[in-house]
Amino acid sequence: MKRWDADQESVAETPDLAALAALLADRTRAAICMALLDGGAWTAGELAEYAAVAPSTTTEHLNLLVSGGLLAEERRGRRRYVRLAGPEAAETLENLAGLAPYRRVPVRSLAEANHRRALHHARTCYDHIAGALGVAIVEAMSERGLLGRDDGPVLTAAGAAWLTGLGVPDAGPPTAHRAHVRTCLDWTVRRRHLSGAVGAALYRHALEHGWVVKAVATRILTVTAAGRTAFRAQLGLPDEALFPSLALAPPRA
Amino acid sequence: MKRWDADQESVAETPDLAALAALLADRTRAAICMALLDGGAWTAGELAEYAAVAPSTTTEHLNLLVSGGLLAEERRGRRRYVRLAGPEAAETLENLAGLAPYRRVPVRSLAEANHRRALHHARTCYDHIAGALGVAIVEAMSERGLLGRDDGPVLTAAGAAWLTGLGVPDAGPPTAHRAHVRTCLDWTVRRRHLSGAVGAALYRHALEHGWVVKAVATRILTVTAAGRTAFRAQLGLPDEALFPSLALAPPRA
DNA sequence: CGGATGATTCGGTGCTCACCGAAATGTGAT
DNA sequence: ATCACATTTCGGTGAGCACCGAATCATCCG
Is the CB of B27 within 7 Å of strand D? Predict the structure, then answer.
């Protein structure tokens, strides 16, 4: 047990909030991170095109994000693949996005408008389901007593039974690093959707059973006919949550 | 139901992550927010002195933070009081701080060293208890089966019974806006402490029963003799969690 | 009514940083 | 070997912004 010595060179450690925030304070870097919320690995070139900046600029941004611990990289041949560093990074991004102000952006083409509508309807959020579909799932589960009331992140006994009945693996015993069940603010609908280990397990289940399919290179999810049947039978989801054409623009703030 | 029209001026909304992050990307503004994590209202002058910048500079920072929605202000006479806008803002800050890298800062005086040690030992985090004491509470509650295992934010039946036995108000039925029980990363100890509505209720209880007292103008909590007795009897907390002099520097990352 | 105090406005300064293009590096394919 | 392709390095440029001091405004106090 050492005592404090006034003459000794002495330092303490504080979390450098500003350093982390500075990583996201740039439009281009923020856009890169939002794109990576699909959970996949992108190459530097893909991100350069997506963000509409020169490849050299992208390199600099990726260097910052990787050394800041937000992104993980993997070099394969002449390619540089980057992805989000982990679930904590993803959830922090989502929560931040839910709290952030909205910005109006012009929609330039019909294709882009359709893309946006599909995103609002159903998409992946790192490793779970977001968008109107994700929000509807949480609300249906709450109504049916599968989740603790409202946004309280509690999986009830009935909820656990429902999951095992579906054949969803138990999400293990709650792991050391990941909260069992969690919700995060959905940035399109401004309501909560299911994340955490249970959210991830449910998404995996839906994929494996063909309830939804994921388009390559985007985060868009499409609900299949089988999926509609399953979501109606299991959770009584309304049509608004099952058909992209019925998804509306988010309510004004 | 309107159809999309290609010629119509058309906009969509995206969360402006960069705008929110830019608010925190500055050292001074980040320091201000961290200071306000004590949950209290500070005047502009106090923050100027705390952050070691000119009053005029502080004004500019506060304008940005308030109009960005992170801070709420209240003008009383010639004073400008600011506080965090709400629990969501506070929890976002805490989570961000937990994910942020550490920065070494020099400790210039014995007083500052003592201050730091006290902060590490026990402090308020907006409206609940953080520091070694807060972490010890979570761990003791987990060991005793009052909280769902590990960091899973589940309050067990035994936990609910324990709280009512203490006379802690039920934290209401889980409110619409606030998660019932939640944990957030403690930036001194890098482990989780209890937040959410239950964490807040527990802190209020401890204050009202004189288990802890809060020093004015800081976030430091001092455990009283009565508090030591109570924490030992109720949770079996070890002395390390009850005496500031035994609080050690955080382990190296 | 002064005089003190807290906060704000404004002009000006220096630094940081996002960006690009051109050239260079390294890897894969022919 | 040679060409194509993905990425990186580097120098330079321009814009944004954190900061201060001096002056001003508003409020409280004697």
Answer: yes
Q: Which residues of B touch A131 (CB under 8 A)?
A: none
pLDDT for residue A163: 84
Rg (CA), chain A: 20
| Residue A33 structure tokens | 């991170």
For the CA atoms of B197, B84, B81, B36, the dihedral, rounded to the nearest 10 degrees, stands at 90
Which amino acid belongs to residue B250?
A: P
Residues 6+ apart with CB under 8 A from A128: A134, A193, A194, A195, A196, A199, A200, A202, A203
Q: Which residues neighbour A221 within 8 Å (Cβ) at sequence distance 6 or greater?
A: A122, A123, A124, A129, A131, A133, A212, A213, A214, A215
Residues for chain A: how many in total? 253
pTM assigned to the model: 0.79
Question: Residue A102: how many CB atoms within 10 A of its CB?
Answer: 16
Bridge-based pairing state of the strands B102-106 and B71-76: unpaired
Contact A120, A213 (CB under 8 A): no
Token pair in block for residue B80: 């400008």
Q: How many CB atoms lie under 10 A from the CB of residue B52? A: 9
CA distance linking residue A225 with residue A233, whole number of Å: 12
Which DSSP symbol is given to B141?
H
Which chain A positions have a beta carbon within 8 Å of B104's beta carbon? 11-13
Å from A241 to nearest chain B CA? 16
CA distance B208 to B206: 6
- B140-159 pLDDT, tens digit per residue, is 988 888 886 543 456 677 77
Q: Other CB atoms closer than 10 Å to residue B54's CB: what's the count?
A: 10
Select the residue of B25, B155, B183 nearest A22 (Cβ to Cβ).
B25
Per-residue pLDDT of chain A (253 residues; tens, 9 = 90+): 545 454 445 677 889 999 999 999 999 999 999 999 888 899 999 999 999 999 999 999 999 999 999 999 999 999 999 999 988 898 889 889 888 998 888 887 888 888 888 988 999 988 899 999 999 999 898 888 888 654 345 677 777 788 888 887 765 444 434 556 777 777 777 778 888 888 889 999 999 999 999 987 778 999 999 999 999 999 999 998 999 876 554 443 3
Across the A/B interface, how many CB contacts are shorter than 8 Å?
201
Phi, psi of B185 (to 5 degrees): -65, 125
At B130, phi and psi to the nearest 5?
A: -130, 180
**Contact criterion met (CB below 8 Å) for B58 and B65:** no
